[in-house]
Amino acid sequence: MENILSYGFMQRALVAGLAVSVTCAILGLFLILRKDAMIGHGLAHVTFGGVALGLFLKVSPILAAMAVSVLAALGILKLKEKAGLYEDTALGIFSSVGMAVGIILVSMAGSFNVNLLSFLFGNILAIETFEVWLSLGLTAAVILTVSLCYHELVYLTFDPESAATAGIKVKRLEAVLAVLSAVTVVLGMKVVGILLVAALIVIPSAAGLMLAGSFRQAMVMSVFVAVISVFAGMLCAFYWDLPASGSIVILNFSIFLLLFSVRIIKTRVIRSPNADHILTEHEPGVNK
Amino acid sequence: METDKTQVRVENVAFSYRAIPVLIDISFLITRGDFLAVLGPNGSGKSTLVKIILGLLPAGEGNVTLFGENVRRFSQWSKIGYVPQRATQSGTLFPASVQEVVSMGVLSKKRFPKIFKYRDRKAIEIALERVDMSKFGKRRIGELSGGQQQRVFIARAIVNEPEILFLDEPTAGVDASTQQRFYEMLDMLNKEHDITIVMVTHDVGVVTKHVNKIACLNQRLVFHGTHDEFCSSHVVQEIVRGEHHLVCHRH
User: Are A32 and A245 within 8 A, CB to CB?
Assistant: First the structure.
């Protein structure tokens, strides 16, 4: 442990990696419960176009990717609303276009830029100080936004129609969620790469859902799974020279499998002590 | 005729979906104390009408007024309770506890940032007691049966003590005896707690034993009146066919 923290690049990687993992887990829970899990995958493709644009224009690829990703996330919402399309169709259109733009820009640049590879496959160990601060700042912004809008986001996720009749500005909140997703995808891209960023959003949250009894529990468990995976993934990278991105995702998946198994055992073998008290459809009438 | 008891005014409302008319020239009033059933065959526009009344869909033509305020500018959402047809899209996977689900209903009367206080927790307890679900507060919503879930959604809708409660096909997929108790609960909310109830259903036989007003839709409003008027209406017989005889015998 002492060895790891004595290296500046590992300190930066740990700080950024843990911050991003927390953000991905929190947001991922809302996304998968809204059946929007693939938005991470789709926006990651769009992000490829943004990174290529940044490299082509010689500006910060992360900032370019963020701008493109945020615009695409809002565009997906608009296209869905105005064209009456399903979300996955709008996502499919934007992700393909984003990828196509990226391929054209790479081709126009004349060579396959080495930098682009690090964005595709992730290279958290090469994260720069500026990117660490950016990750921390954006993570704080995401956590603050989710904290302030927590109850509205839960209601929107659970039942958008009823949320609207509670005076919640559903469209505005969906736009907030889309922007947060875009930002999170860009942050996650640096940790595990464009190709695996969806895993960072989906798997910890799916794992958290296995045993949680309430939304807050699910969120805490998702964050816990994400943090453990990123931390352990970095240990694998440092001590065994494995790719950090792949290790993080495989560890995420392993924890998911573990929790899934526990759930199966819990459901099949251990009977709930309250099971006998579950009312049937024929329980006595209502209180008056 | 509009009175100071009028809570909802629907005026010449029309709605089309991709040029296909769904609702044509609908006008009626909902007044305090009504237990109104919105009846009609499948595709008659019942759910669409409720969504327009609640501002979830924009009316193509006409106006809807809630408590004297146009629905597009309406802000007193705590006066309204709503139980949609499919109350959750996440099914059994959603990790919310029953208390968390009911707490969602409290949000309509809170300003940003929405922070829960002791009186909110008390209101959640009372709402759960009213629907006889207080012992399930910590249980995950997906673990409950369909009838129990509906009670929880009613608790969510009444947690603010609304003045009017809208329910869209609340007993779909629920067995007959549960339905009976469900309607008794609605009776109690209507009579003892003075909550106006508007219920969309195609279940003519059971509903008309409990409601005091009926609106019958078939794209147009073919009937709007009291239970007795409903029983003597020949137009209605066309809509409800063989069930009409059954519904006119109250117990």
Answer: no
Question: Which residues of chain B are within 8 Å of residue A216 when distances are taken between CB atoms?
Answer: 100
Query: May I ask the CATH class of domain B77-197?
Result: alpha beta
State the ipTM, two decimals.
0.85
Burial of A22 (0-12, 13-18, 19+ CB in 10 A): buried
Q: Specify the CATH number for the domain of residue A70.
A: 1.10.3470.10
Among the CATH numbers 3.40.50.300, 3.40.50.170, 3.30.470.20, 3.40.30.10, which is that of B1-75? 3.40.50.300
Task: Provide, rounded to the nearest whole percent, the portion of chain B with pLDDT above 90.
Answer: 45
As a whole number of Å, the end-to-end CA separation of chain B is 30
Over residues A228-263, the pLDDT tens digits come to 999 999 999 888 989 888 999 999 999 999 999 999
Choose among B54, B129, B148: nearest Cβ to A287: B129
Inter-chain touch A164–B56, beta carbons under 8 Å: yes
pLDDT tens digits, A86-133: 888 999 999 999 999 998 988 887 665 667 788 888 888 888 898 899
Do B112 and A154 make contact, defined as CB atoms within 8 angstroms?
A: no
Residue B211, min C-alpha distance to chain A (Å): 18
